[in-house]
């Protein structure tokens, strides 16, 4: 009888654990179920970046936009269909979110070795980490065990992802709503040390704002007319847009932040001003703090345990 009760208690605990909604992400989640995962993601990212260095930046941005909308749950990867409106067509993503084909390729390669085991949300987290590393940035262990959403929210994507004309108060509030501090905002904005932006997002800044270096504004106007050319590209980092270094912060100090939201970090008072100065002087500190903040970003509201699903195709709910 005692054995029977013990068995019953043990089974109950096991099922509680399995159904637990707040299971923790862990670094070695796939150690036995998909030991080749990290190698597969790394190798696919190496060849993608060889083809186009910018793709590392684009995938990092996808990850940020995934995590800011109902957590890091792969929701941004879902395609719109006749009966489903997802996040790809939301304002912050439409005609600018890119890198989906690389995530598809990684998923295909992962499925070939570990069928129906690894979530698209985890693949995106690993790919973002690898892109940063391959462009010269830091590396870290990615906590894993996220599962994929069966839903997406276009309205949350429209209202919860900050826009390029946001001021510091708005940025601070939007990050705080995700459990991220002003320090996290300051260091994560350093992601703009890589990648490109469209003219339509910085036009007002280069034509109308005064806290901008004059020569820099003139240079950017050469490929961003006061009307037209909306999708013409310019680098977010004025010197090294395919190297994950600390030059973004040098740009801010020189009034060469390209987006209004970038320069907002170095315009006025607050602890972020001295942090910008610190990162401009100290690459090691920037990379260390960036890695820690990425882990924090990656832990926003994941689906775990038996919630969500492991998608077969990152673009479609099973
Ligand atoms: C702080 C608020 C932020 C705002 C307002 C913002 C806004 C933007 C905008 C408007 C673009 C250009 C998109 C385009 O023209 O297609 C961009 C690009 C980018 N953003 Fe942000 N961003 C923010 C924070 C972040 C964070 C936290 C990350 C990652 C941790 C990030 C990573 C990137 C990257 C890597 C690119 C370049 C993408 C590419 O070249 O395809 N951003 N961002
Ligand atoms: C993958 O696993 C699913 C069940 O989880 C099975 O139906 C499918 O045939 C498998 N595919 C491959 C290629 O092994
Ligand atoms: C400059 O600001 C004015 C007033 O807000 C606006 O109408 C105009 O479109 C802006 N110019 C550019 C090039 O964005």
Automatic annotation (TrEMBL):
The record marks 61 as: Transition state stabilizer. Binds 2 calcium ions per subunit. Binds 1 heme b (iron(II)-protoporphyrin IX) group per subunit. Ca(2+) 1 binds at residues 66, 69, 71, 73, 75, 87. Disulfide bonds join 34-114, 67-72, 120-314, 199-224. Its EC number is 1.11.1.7. Its main location: secreted. Substrate binds at residue 162. One of its GO terms (molecular function) is heme binding. Belongs to the peroxidase family. Ascorbate peroxidase subfamily. Removal of H(2)O(2), oxidation of toxic reductants, biosynthesis and degradation of lignin, suberization, auxin catabolism, response to environmental stresses such as wounding, pathogen attack and oxidative stress. These functions might be dependent on each isozyme/isoform in each plant tissue. This is Peroxidase.
């Amino acid at each position: 009888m005692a054995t029977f009760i013990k068995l019953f208690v043990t089974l109950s605990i096991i099922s509680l654990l399995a159904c637990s909604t707040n299971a923790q992400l862990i670094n070695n989640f796939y150690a036995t179920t998909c030991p080749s995962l990290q190698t597969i993601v790394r190798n696919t990212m190496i060849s993608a970046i060889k083809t186009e260095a910018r793709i590392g930046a684009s995938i990092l941005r996808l990850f940020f936009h995934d995590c800011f909308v109902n957590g890091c749950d792969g929701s941004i990867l879902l395609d719109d269909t006749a009966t489903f409106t997802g996040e790809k067509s939301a304002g912050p993503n439409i005609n600018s979110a890119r890198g989906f084909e690389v995530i598809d390729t990684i998923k295909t390669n992962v499925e070939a070795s570990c069928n129906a085991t690894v979530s698209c949300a985890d693949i995106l987290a690993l790919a973002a980490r690898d892109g940063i590393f391959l462009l010269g940035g830091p590396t870290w262990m990615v906590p894993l065990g996220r599962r994929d959403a069966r839903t997406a929210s276009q309205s949350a994507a429209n209202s919860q992802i900050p826009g390029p004309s946001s001021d510091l108060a708005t940025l601070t509030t939007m990050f705080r709503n995700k459990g991220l501090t002003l320090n996290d905002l300051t260091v994560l904005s350093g992601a703009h040390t890589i990648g490109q932006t469209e003219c339509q997002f910085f036009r007002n800044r280069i034509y109308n704002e005064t806290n901008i270096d004059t020569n820099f504004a003139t240079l950017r106007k050469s490929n961003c007319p006061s009307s037209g050319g909306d999708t013409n590209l310019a680098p977010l980092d004025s010197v090294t847009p395919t190297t994950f270094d600390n030059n973004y912060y040098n740009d801010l100090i020189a009034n060469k932040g390209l987006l209004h939201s970038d320069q907002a970090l170095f315009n006025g008072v607050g602890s972020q001003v001295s942090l910008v100065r610190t990162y401009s002087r100290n690459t090691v500190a920037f990379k260390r703090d960036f890695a820690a903040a990425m882990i924090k970003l990656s832990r926003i509201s994941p689906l775990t345990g038996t919630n969500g699903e492991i998608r077969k195709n990152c673009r479609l709910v099973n």
